Amino acid sequence: MQYFSTRGTSPAVSSAQAVVDGLAPDGGLYIMAASEIPQLDLSALCDLDYPALSAKVLSALMPDFSAEEALTLTRAAYLEKFSTPLVAPLRDAGGELFLELFHGPTAAFKDVALCLLPHLMTSASRKCGHEGDILILTATSGDTGKAALEGFRDVDGIRILVFFPRDGVSPVQKAQMVTQAGTNVKVCAVEGNFDDAQSGVKRIFEATPDGLSSANSINIGRLVPQVAYYFSAYFAAVRLGRIAFGEALNYAVPTGNFGDILAGYLAMRMGLPVGKLICASNANNVLTDFLRTGVYDRRRPFHKTFSPSMDILISSNLERLLYLESGDSALVSSLMAQLKAEGHYTVPAPLLEKLQARFVPFYCDDDATIAGISEVWSKSRYLIDTHTAVARQAAKACDLGPTVILSTASPYKFPAAVCSAIGVPPAGDEFAQMDALEKASGVAMPENLRGLRDRPVLHTDCVAPADMPAYVSAKRAEPSWVK
């Protein structure tokens, strides 16, 4: 299996090379041809534990990694770093199914991929004969940054530099990043929003790609590990008696950069019985409008919401979906060029019909998000975060039958909004609210978040978007990041 650039002008590469490169030289994203997406035998997967299931998916989508090697990598990623051996347990809360993706070391769904990616990256680097250090360059809307920093901390031969929007993440998310220890890590704020940070990173890749890779979902090695939990959720739903084996199951996914829901699409294309993928957005509803009309238009107000990891107007992984559904790299390249130059594009009607057959769009504002948290708490005493609440409201509104709601973060990462939703009086800063939330709810705070306020701040750099290339060049030239 070869991996191609969505924009068609870069050479095809192996799956290992795609992981090492992160972004294609022509600015496109690596993906296999739709005709090469492998089909999996569900009956051979249903009784596997999570590392074994993940290994089967990984070796199928990335054949440079044998089944035996993939299992070694997934066991190293999951056996000791998650608070449950299930990794991603499915929870029935008052009849609603929540896929809990926050049991990893940073309490967010990005851990599932970013505990595996460092192992994948180092193995891929060896396979490709790469010499010298790799610099992981990543923009984050909140959770990717901490998960990537933790995953790559002190990994030999790799340094990681994370950019985050200065005022676009929660205080808890920011504290997780700026207190990150490690001999090979660097964190820098950007004076702008996530789209500014992400666009800056892409420009750096396009200008000087040698020795760079990414931990964002623009890297196919970040995306592939997320496919497995769609399969695990399906088998769990069967065991709970919510569906029969072979029956279709829907998934409601809180969506910003389109990576998580694209993993569900790949699972569908691999033979998982998926009914619909519900694309749940917050007030930054560019994806909702696109899936309804075929017009992608980022020329709109940017809203800072209670679900900041979804505060995104340029959804990078949508490019992969357009390529897979159209098979036309020239079309995709043209659309991406128009988006960059004019801020919008329109897909052909036949392509829109294909997308609408698979995806259902939905969005809600902050008031509806708070209402969702409150309703679930009142009904079942189950605590969800703001991003999960958006997906829950989507599942409720769409009412498509059995649906798994992807729960992408611990509620303790967004305590102010969650406290407000369940009637806990606001008091003090977000760290005080975490304590108040634990006391009022009786739901234990993740140990990796406890004591976060008292950890020393180690990273204070901040740059304008235009200064990101110079900052990266300066940091690459430094022989050591240890002070």
Structural class: alpha/beta
Question: How many DSSP helices?
Answer: 19
Count of β-strands: 15
In the CATH scheme, the class of the domain at 90-103 and 221-444 would be Alpha Beta
Overall mean pLDDT score? 95
Set down the secondary structure blueprint:
Layout: E1 4-5, H1 15-21, E2 30-31, H2 50-61, H3 67-78, E3 90-93, E4 96-100, H4 110-114, H5 117-127, E5 134-139, H6 143-152, E6 158-165, H7 171-178, E7 185-190, H8 194-207, E8 212-213, H9 220-239, E9 249-254, H10 259-269, E10 274-281, H11 286-293, E11 295-297, H12 318-326, H13 329-342, E12 344-346, H14 349-358, E13 359-363, H15 366-380, H16 386-398, E14 403-407, H17 415-422, H18 430-441, E15 461-463, H19 468-477
What does this structure look like?
It is a single chain. The protein has 19 helices and 15 strands. Helices cover 43% and strands 14% of the residues. It has 483 residues and is an alpha/beta fold. It has a domain of 238 residues: 3-Layer(aba) Sandwich (Rossmann fold), CATH 3.40.50.1100. The relative contact order is 0.14. Strands 3-4-14-9-10-13 form a six-stranded mixed sheet, with helices on both faces. A five-stranded parallel sheet has the order 8-5-6-7-15, with helices on both faces. A two-stranded antiparallel sheet has the order 1-2. Helix 10 links the parallel strand 9 and strand 10. The mean pLDDT is 95.
